Amino acid sequence: MDRLLNVMTIFSALLIGVVLASVRRAHIRVEYSVSWLVAALVLLVLSRWPPALAWIADVLGVTQTGPAAAPLVLMMVTGTLFLMVLYRLSLRISSLKDSNIALAQRVAILEYHLESLDEKAKAATRE
Amino acid sequence: MKLLILIPAYNEQGAVGGVIGEVRAAMPGAPVLVVDDCSTDATITVARDAGARVLPLPHHLGLGGCVQAGYRLAFELGYDYVIRVDGDGQHDPRDIPKILDALERQGCEMVIGSRFADGSGRHTGFLRAAGIVFFRAVLHPILGRPVRDPTSGFVGVNRRALEVFSRSFPLEYPEIEALVVLQRRRFRFAEVPCRMRPRRAGRSTITAVRSLYYMVHVLLGVFVNVLKFEGRRK
Fold this sequence. Notes:
The structure holds two protein chains of two kinds.
Chain A: H1 2-24, H2 30-48, H3 50-60, H4 69-126
Chain B: E1 3-9, H1 16-26, E2 32-36, H2 43-49, E3 53-56, H3 63-76, E4 81-84, H4 96-106, E5 110-114, H5 126-143, E6 155-158, H6 159-167, H7 174-184, E7 189-193, H8 208-228
Helix pairs in contact in B: 3-6, 5-7, 5-8, 7-8
C-alpha cells in the first residue's frame, strides 16, 4: 500500500516537473498547463494524505475499509481526473479545428478576391 | 438569375479538365469555380487552363470544408443558385439543366441529382449501395419522407440554403448530414433522375476499410444534427 502511494507521489511530482519544464520552454501554453498541474497536485496531496483517501472511500461507499480502500480510490480519482483533462482538451481541439477551418476558408476567399482585383487592374492597364 | 457551378477537387488533375469542359459545353456562360482542397498534383493548373476560376485552400480541409468554402464565396458574391459537380467525372454535366430547372420551378431549397430517381442506380458499388439502403431507412423518419439517393454529391442549392450552408455545413462526408441540417430549418428538397458514371481518374475517398468508419461517423452526425437545432418539422 505504502509502495503504491510512494509511486503515485513520484509520478505526480514528475508530472508537475515535466509540465512546468514544458511551460518554461513554451512547449505548452500556460492555460493548457493548468489542467495537468491541478490533476497532478490533487494526486500528490492524496498520495501523501491517506485520511483524505479514506474519507473519499467513505463518501463513495467503497465497501473495503481502512488502508485496503486506498488503492481503489486512488485509481478512481486518477482515472476521473485524467478523463476530465482529456475532455477539456477535446473541447479545445474541436474549437481550434473550427477556427482553423474558418480561417483557411477566409484566406482562400481573400486570395480569390485579390486575384480578381489583380486581373481587373491588369485589364484596365491594357485598355 | 446568377448560377455558379461548384467543383470541389482534391488531386483530380486527370479528370477535372474534362469535367470543366463538359460543364462549359452544357452551361455556356455559367461561371465555373473549382475549390482546390490543397491538391499535391496539377489540379489548379489544369482547372485554370480549362477556363475555371480557382479557390485554392491553404491546407487540406476535407470534402465538407472544401464545399463550404465554395458556398461561402458564392454567398458573398451574391449567387442565387449553386450546383455542385464532383471533379472526378462521376456526374454528367448534361444533367445540370434538370437540377437548375427543378430549383427554379419547384422553389425547393435543395435539389439532389439522384441515380435512383428513375430506378436505375447504375455505377453503384456494393458498399455504397449498402450504405444508401441503410441511410434511406435512417433518414426516412427524420425527414418525414423518403430520399432515394442521400449520398449523392450532385446537388443544387438556392440562396436560402446557401446562406445556411455558408454558416453551418458538415465537414466530413457532408451529403447526408446536409439533408438533416436543411430539414431542421424546414427547408424542402427534391430529387431528379441523373446519370452517374464511373470516376475517370483518382480514387474514391470512401474505401472498403473506411466504409465502417463512414457509417458510424455519418450516423452520429445525423443524430447530433437532429438534437442540435430547434424547430422540428411537425
